[in-house]
């Protein structure tokens, strides 16, 4: 059972999420602001935290920073604001997903389930999407039965995208996680590697989705 913490100063939002969470079989807990949530997370473990940005006492961004410093719990951020800056800041702080208000409860439940499963499954050894197969241990890429040679960094980038399937990833985050802190390039490095990766993926190139003003995500498209 997924143990969920919903953090929002709006009672109606908490009630709706709680109702759908219980219907989905989740163990739902609630907090009215970031300070209360932080204290709850210090005292007990949660599988997923769904947290609003604009709250009294301690806002969502500050709460996220404090929480990530003590526990690696998956966080889905909620916000009525659609500014790209908010999304970028959230992902740079380590959130796992970003949902804009107003949202449909069913969509939120699906995102909670996806984030929870990603967290529990950890790192896979093989990723397979039809004819697209990536062997992480053997470091091989196969497209429709044909072995494709790509550079080590392109392979690392592809695996990182797959490990965070459906998650929006900023160029800064990709530079940080794939190229690490000792890399002194710029954001165009990510774009160049994405371009080369798409060429290598052939008929599966559209699985790497461009998010204008944000970055990229890996999402399987219907064929």
UniProtKB/TrEMBL annotation:
Record keywords: DNA-binding, Phosphoprotein, Transcription, Transcription regulation, Two-component regulatory system
GO terms classed as biological process: regulation of DNA-templated transcription
Chain positions found as 4-aspartylphosphate: 52
Occurrences of domain OmpR/PhoB-type (ranges): 124-220
Top-rank lineage group of the source organism: Bacteria
Molecular-function annotations in GO: phosphorelay response regulator activity; transcription cis-regulatory region binding
Residues covered by the Response regulatory domain: 3-116
UniProt xrefs under PROSITE patterns: OMPR_PHOB, RESPONSE_REGULATORY
DNA-binding region: 124-220
Phosphoprotein keyword on record: yes
One Pfam family named in its UniProt record: Response_reg
One Gene Ontology CC term in the entry: protein-DNA complex
Identification of the protein by name: Two-component system response regulator
């Amino acid at each position: 059972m997924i143990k969920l913490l919903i953090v929002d100063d709006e009672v109606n939002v908490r009630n709706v999420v709680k109702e759908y969470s219980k219907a989905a079989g989740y163990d739902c807990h609630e907090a009215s602001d970031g300070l209360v949530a932080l204290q709850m997370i210090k005292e007990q473990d949660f599988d997923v935290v769904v947290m609003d940005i604009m709250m009294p006492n301690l806002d969502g961004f500050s709460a996220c920073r404090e929480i990530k410093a003590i526990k690696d719990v998956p966080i889905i951020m909620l916000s009525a604001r659609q500014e790209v800056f908010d999304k970028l800041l959230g992902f740079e702080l380590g959130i796992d997903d970003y949902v804009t208000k107003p949202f449909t409860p069913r969509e939120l439940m699906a995102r909670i389930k996806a984030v929870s499963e990603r967290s529990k499954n950890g790192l896979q050894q093989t990723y397979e999407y039809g004819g697209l197969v990536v062997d992480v241990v053997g470091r091989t890429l196969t497209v429709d039965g044909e072995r494709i040679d790509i550079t080590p960094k392109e392979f690392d980038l592809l695996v990182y995208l797959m490990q965070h399937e459906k998650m929006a990833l900023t160029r800064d985050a990709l530079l940080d996680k794939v190229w690490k802190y000792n890399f002194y390039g710029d954001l165009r490095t990510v774009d160049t590697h994405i371009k080369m990766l798409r060429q290598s993926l052939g008929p599966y190139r559209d699985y790497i989705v461009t998010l204008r003003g944000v970055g990229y995500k890996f999402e399987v498209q219907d064929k």
